[in-house]
Write a structure and sequence with these properties.
This protein is of the alpha+beta class and 416 residues long. 65% of the residues lie in helices and 8% in strands.
Length: 416
């Protein structure tokens, strides 16, 4: 299961429910259990593989030393049962190299531990004498180390402990040097220690699970906080009425665009758009109708620009600024004229207008061509403002392009 599922409402509710309980009562089930196993699998698998490899290495080293130091007959009796461990370790390591079905990995680990413990016990049983009980104790030590460091499900841990104690009891009952009562007493003694180790391992696992639950909750809260921050940033940069960007965001965009190159953008157009006689519309029809007019005009402007490249912002009360990267004068004027015509064609009522009985818009255009001397965004905006002011003065409902050659602005369209 992918860890992204941790953000689901069901997982979130289950995490809160589990964390509300006492630590000792935490039990992971279902999706959360699968998430936890996926979270710890890599570390657990590395520990198991490393433990297995060291057991095989120590087994081979011990057998080699036995051949050098012990009588030949005793050393040879230890060789065959001791040779069980290396191939078992190889099999377990191969299965635990990558995630597989839990039942397969559990069965492999338990079977591998049984054969390893049996091998250690048989080495002592085959040698007899002082080696008999010594290797049974070594077998229990091997089992205890596995119980302590293996972060595996409790059922697997209990099974390994039970196998170790069962093997110990069976071989001690067959020990010719030990009475039955002593064998049972020794088994009970070691059982208390082993199951205390199992209990400690269970506590460690529960604490790890609780830490994982806190991690899930903290990650969710961080995600919620990040989402809230993103929403606040969006609100801070958005005009609440029209849904367009606001003046602050447009200023940041202009600064970023100009700072991205040493001399500013290669070519850029700027449109200053202003609704004609908007104050008269407010006075005649009321502010509610004025707000509806702003929303409709904002939508028209947004629909007539390139959504993946151009930027539109509500810059003032009834004023809009449009930024057109990588356009020449003809293209910028064409966009402005398309906006003007679309607003006029929409025929929103403005009975108080001195231009038409419907809402109209005037647009000033300024363009920095690729070959022009670089201008700051403030200079380009002042030029667009100047063109807009002249459009207003010469009749409204028109597009005017700022002409750098003279103070006379080019009239693109006369009033109808």
């Amino acid at each position: 299961m992918h860890l992204d599922t941790q953000d689901s409402p069901a997982i979130t509710a289950e995490v809160e429910r589990l964390l509300a309980r006492r630590t000792r009562d935490i039990r992971l089930k279902g999706d959360i259990q699968r998430l936890f196993r996926a979270r710890i699998w890599s570390q657990t698998a590395k520990i198991i593989r490393a433990w297995m490899i060291w057991v095989a290495f120590l087994d081979v080293l011990t057998l080699a030393l036995n051949m050098l130091m012990l009588p030949k007959a005793i050393a040879l009796s230890m060789l065959l049962p001791g040779a069980i461990i290396p191939p078992v370790v190889v099999a377990v390591v191969l299965v635990w190299r990558k995630p597989r079905a839990p039942w397969l990995q559990g069965a492999t680990l338990i079977a591998g531990m049984l054969l390893i413990l049996l091998s250690v016990a048989l080495v002592g049983v085959s040698a007899g004498g002082e080696f008999y009980e010594r290797h049974l104790n070594i077998m229990l030590f091997v089992a205890i180390t596995a119980i302590i460091i293996f972060g595996i499900p409790l059922a697997w841990t209990v099974t390994i402990a039970a196998l170790a104690l069962s093997l110990y009891l069976v071989f001690q009952l067959q020990n010719p040097r030990l009475e039955i009562g002593s064998a049972v007493a020794a088994t009970l003694f070691f059982a208390s220690g082993i199951f205390a180790t199992v209990a400690a391992r269970r506590t460690m696992t529960i604490l790890a699970q609780k830490t994982f639950l806190f991690e899930l909750r903290d990650r969710r809260r961080v995600a919620e906080l990040a989402q809230a921050n993103d929403q606040l940033k969006l609100l801070a940069r958005t005009d609440p009425l029209t849904g367009l960007s606001n003046r602050r965001w447009m200023t940041e965009t202009l600064d970023h665009l100009w700072s991205s190159g040493r001399k500013g953008p290669a070519a850029v157009g700027m449109l200053m758009c202003d609704i004609d006689d908007f104050k008269r519309l407010n006075d005649r029809l009321g502010h509610a109708e004025g707000d509806r007019c702003l929303v409709r005009v904002a939508g028209i402007i947004r629909d007539n620009v390139r959504h993946d490249r151009d930027h539109v912002a509500r810059y003032g009360g009834e004023e809009f600024l449009v930024l057109l990267p990588e356009v020449n004068e003809q293209e910028a004027v064409a966009v402005a004229e398309r906006i003007r015509e679309s607003v006029e064609a929409a025929a929103f009522p403005n009975p108080a207008s001195r231009v038409s009985r419907h809402v109209t818009i005037s647009i000033g255009v300024a363009v920095q061509a690729q070959a022009d001397e670089a201008r700051s965004p403030e200079q380009l905006q002042r030029q667009a403002d100047a063109a807009l002011y002249l459009a207003k003065q010469t009749g409204r409902n028109r597009v005017l392009l700022h002409s750098p050659e003279s103070t006379v602005r080019k009239n693109i369209r006369s009033t109808r």
